[in-house]
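Predict the 3D structure for this chain.
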Amino acid sequence: MKTPKPAIQANTLEFETTALVKPTGFREYDARWWFGAPGDDPKTAKAPELNYMGVQALGLGLATVIHNMGVEPKIVVGHDYRSYSIAIKQALILGLLEGGMEVHDIGLALSPVAYYAQFALDIPCVAMVTASHNENGWTGVKMGANKPLTFGPDEMGQLKDVVLNGKFNPQPGGKIVHVEGMREKYIEAVCKDVKIERPLKVIAACGNGTAGAFAPDALRKMGVEVIELECNLDYTFPNYNANPEDAEMLHAMAAALKEHGADVALGFDGDGDRCGVVDNTGEEIFADKIGLMLARDLSKNFPNAKFVVDVKSTGLYKTDPVLQENGATVDYFKTGHSYIKRRTTELGALAGFEKSGHFFFREPLGFGYDDGLVAAAEVLKMLDRNPSRSMSDLKGDLGTAYTSLTMAAHCDDETKYGVVDQVVAAYEQLGKDGGSILGRKITDVNTVNGARVTLEDGSWVLVRASSNKPELVVVVESMQSDDDMRKLFREEIKPRLAGFKEVGAYNQEI
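Done. Predicted structure below.
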């Protein structure tokens, strides 16, 4: 195969005969490209960043990297429920076969189903075609060659080099195996040790994404009453993106919970590896605080447990008295499912929690990868172990912190890391100079992933580059008040980022 081109005009002969792979699609821990939404007019639509021949090149490149790593050339492949995902998967498979891989195609799947299949079939590698919660028109691939881990920057760098520079190594021996019944095996495995005795009414919200084919049946099998919300599969996503971190989906979950008098609402993203929670009063509980609730509960049965959280997570982990009493330790690490998954495994942690809703449970609770349904099971088990307490009661046991939504400001992939480098340098210097923010001295500048700047009262602000979209990510948390939290954004973060012409509008503000 010839070396792909970084840009090709759509609806042309060249587009049909030459591989297109835009370099920016290779992210820190997976791959994401704008492919084009169904029905787009190629003359006026946003230019595609990938075509089918480019996907085939990606498959051959992935096979080449796997062979170079010395890993057994067997791979699980699945696809999410987008109108073009199955075609992209088939193009990917063509490349994998050309690279000598034995491909085990599990069909329509959630990302955690593909990860589970690696264990169930004893296969080292995985390639899941999904754009997760991204808008219609995006596509991507989550990859791994060492279960339960997925690729990080090193492996993605190798893949990018092979694909963009045409360093392909076609090999004979390619083979495809169609695997039947993985959906049923996965649901059985997730529910195997879950038997909820407490009567619970649960809203299952799926945003018309792939999780609608899995979550309602799995939750019922766990023993709860299920009220379905947008669980019918619809690749036009007529209501909102399947993203339980976005306000629109959370508000819909809250409305359904109040309408049906449910105990909890559980929301799943497009590929089912994340879980969002709305409590019995209709208030959303950000995933980092769900993680803290779970850590408090689990630490009672697992003394001296280790937990990993991402840098977007609440500072309450540092001061929680229950964790301290039970000898639990907490490590703050880089945001990103691949990073937290890897860190959780490296430290032998019981679980890892990410503010975006990725939860990672290691044995005996799980296999170590992010799985929205395993997270849902742990939430339900926590409620079952506390039969007289509601979700809002358990949330009320936490310390007080006022945390913002995860906000994003547009910044092109080509410039976002440079902007963040300048922000990090400015905050580091401010900290060294004994500087303050809103009258509070800076006590720590954590630069493991952008800049997380902690103040003397425990409040903090975070600016980092998104790993999968052309955006800067912003989170703020105040230990004082909701109004102070908003001031941290409006009077510190927003003016600071406004100084960069590369930074555009925010997707939402507070």
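Residues 3 and 165 are 6 Å apart (CA to CA).
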